[in-house]
Amino acid sequence: MTIVALIKQVPLTSEVALDPKTGVIQRESGETKMNPYDLYALETALRISQTHGGKTIALTMGPPQAEAVVREAFAMGFDEGYLLTDRAFAGSDVLATSHALSQAIRTLGQVDLIITGKQTTDGDTGQVGAEVSEFLGIPCVAAVQQLLEISETSITATSDTGTTLMTVRVELPALIAVDKDIHQPRLPSYVRMKQTEKRQVRRITLADLPDTDRTHYGLEGSPTQVVKIFPPESNTDFALWTGVDIPGRLYEYLQKEKFLQELA
Amino acid sequence: MKTIVVHNELITDPAGMPKLCPFGAIVEIDDDVQITSGCRMCLLCVKKGPHGVFELQETAENRELIDKTRWKGILVYIEQHGNHIHPVSLEMVGKAHELGAKCGQPVFAMVAGDALTMVTGELLTYGIDRILAYEDPAFADFRIEPYTAALEDAIGHLHPAVVLVGGTNNGRTLAPRTAARVHTGLTADCTVLDIQQQADLDQIRPAFGGNIMAHIRTPNHRPQFATVRYKIFETAHKNSKRGTVESRSLPPQKLVSAIRVLSQIPKGAGIFIEDAQVIVAIGKGIGKESAIGLFEQLAVALGGQIACTRPLVENGWMDPRKQIGLSGRTVKPKLIITCGVSGSVQFSAGMKSSDRIIAINTDTDAPIFKTAHIGIVGDIFDIVPALLERIASDSQRVATSANASPMGRS
Predict the structure, then answer these.
(1) Which residues of chain A have a CB within 8 Å of the CB of B303?
(2) B2: β partners
(3) What is the CATH number assigned to the segment(s) B68-255?
């Protein structure tokens, strides 16, 4: 069985501010990390390959420095890693990103299972997995909380539909998005990091993809466009409380607004 | 084709150039400035960089402009299970009426299920112009392939300008899958939607995971897909205008799925923070896991529930179902007290429509004070125990008072 985990490098902190005068985005630092939700995808892939055999492949899309997250996957135990990178992908929205990823997956040969995390911490949308599955023409199951059974041809899993827990058997190849806490992710191993130091993170560029039409990627291939970015509005109905006996004042307020009455 | 070209000959301060890019996509090696594949085409370097250094070049293209007059109306995907319409779908209908009225276009709905008579009957009371019903045993449970085929068929049949999908777990799978199939744009978790002439949809959502809002458009694709979380918009009003229900069926090959549903059990009740009237929300400022109990006491004292920010879930301190925010739940209680929450946009988006927001934080500049109605600059570990003491001594007094009469909350 060949399992591909889709991972992403995200900013270390989500605390970003907009300079109100210049409109320039200010980041605290350029530091990055593996998207924390992807650790669960990686762990799930490793567990399946350990119990059922098969090859694990980590695939990411991003700038050259995103290679770091693939190295981290190596240190966790992944067999192979790919970085999908090209300036032609600049400005890709969900559709263009998903198209690029699905094209890259097509270059990897027979793939049985694709695993993603719930979402990223920088985009927060959780949509890329479903779009990738559509472009590959394979089924997808989101919000997977538990894997019950794995065979060469299917997996049985429990998915959170919001109001119910649904247990499904899905034929392979398939894409699943796993929820946080499906498994406790292992830590990268220093020994494995040393062992895999020389292992190549293979680059995939536009020229390597089956579809090399530039207009299908990047800004050009993105139906959505950011018109502008702006700081959020602040509230005008605001009172700042300072001074002594804040707890007393808060208590009076809660009582006056009838939030304490049921205690009686 | 758009690309940014760097004019190195105009640069006087090569080492300063990388700072222009918030994504680290501008690199300088031996005075040579280049843009890497980290570029997101945000064009900040073009706008804010030294004049002429970063140039946006557009090669002549023969991109065909779509005929927007062929796409009319706002289509709402109605999520239902067991004859129960998910309330987020009715919120989407409410928004669709507002958008439809503004641009003079009709409101459509589509629903799939194995028995829909009750659901379509209820939908008819909301003044929807046309309702498409896909009734088949294949739709008994949510499986991505048949549901995508149904929504695709509805789009092909109605040619709507806009498709609105509630941001539930199922909606967040169905919307991207269908948007990819019809090859159009999708904006997830919009917090504001507005509409222009020719039904150009203004989609506004927090971006980059931080304190920034992005205004997004889908200029040359139809339909325009947007998802919106539960409890962001107001629910639709009943409307005496009667629309029509059309039954549609799909050929058997469209109903095939590689997914077999083996069982489905309802999740436990009472854990939904969306239903709480009072919420005590805790954030990183509580410092340690063992402090949670104090805030649970406050939640209990107020007859409410405890909820939290994303970092507490990431630390494994709290159940993910207790998380407020774009990546968690959206809540709209009568009162929310935030304790040690800094208030990222991603958090605020999930609670800012609450009736009363009281924020306690030691940092005067915490963004949560921009969302709050009452801001208290102070230490939660001083204020909350003192408040609990006041409530406890009072309830003893009230409990011993013969005249005390319980009253419901307003």
Answers:
(1) 259, 262-263
(2) B58
(3) 3.40.50.620
